[in-house]
């Protein structure tokens, strides 16, 4: 992908599709979902259009693919936004009609399991947007985080450069969606500590590729949405991990296998998202959270030392499963300026 194809952006008053390409969780947890829909309307001025599987748990891959086709093919729909992620979107990919999507490019927003569709679109030459789900970011308890809202607004409505900045505080401890009291106040935050740079002695500018690390590992295993390694030469890699909290050794193994494939060495720069370090299954305390993040960073550096020792890395970027969350273009341009400690994306 050498010449990114940025789809036309919507304007306030336009219709946007809200889909569930992975899981119909809006049907189980309507409170954060409907809060997110209200904010789309009230704060961003767009009209959300739901589809047959948006609130349907257990929808088949064919049904979910049909919703994707319908949303992209409808000329009245100006953007497509995922309700939430999941773990089954890989089964939708073989049912997608590339011709429909290529002929009707639109901005698509999502992350986590939506890495599947984002990289599928990228292979068609269409820039997508990693971030901005309806239930998690738009449906955040209390209020949208201002940094998230600003980044999402810029990516949704504008074209051109947007400079990312590090958050002063961040949070990754969730409260249960089924408890109405969850939505009475904003989530607790803690000092973020800024970004950390490795090999930050140059400027790298290139087309972006990446997403959720666990999903990318599945795509590699299934042989989908990943081309020959040299197709990514000079690209900017971005990665993040999910609430499943993969062990540092698993992160290393995935990156090692990317290295063995000849993929890791293609990227002169890597943006590594701030690792989510808490889940309902593993409610880590402050010291455990810090240790988890440190061990993940060490795993990334160990893999790079073996396969791509010259790669520049920025750790703890607020992308992916983070609060706040910065939207990252997939297949769009990113400039990583090590000496100036700046990251600029093109929306």
UniProtKB/TrEMBL annotation:
Superkingdom: Bacteria
Domain LD-carboxypeptidase C-terminal positions: 205-336
A Pfam family matched in the record: Peptidase_S66C
SUPFAM superfamilies reported in the protein's UniProt record: Class I glutamine amidotransferase-like, LD-carboxypeptidase A C-terminal domain-like
GO molecular function, one term: carboxypeptidase activity
Protease in keyword set: yes
Domain LD-carboxypeptidase N-terminal, residue spans: 16-131
Matches recorded under InterPro entries: Carboxypeptidase_A_C_sf, Class_I_gatase-like, LdcA_N, Peptidase_S66_N, Peptidase_S66C, S66_fam
Protein name: LD-carboxypeptidase
Organism of this sequence: Nonomuraea zeae
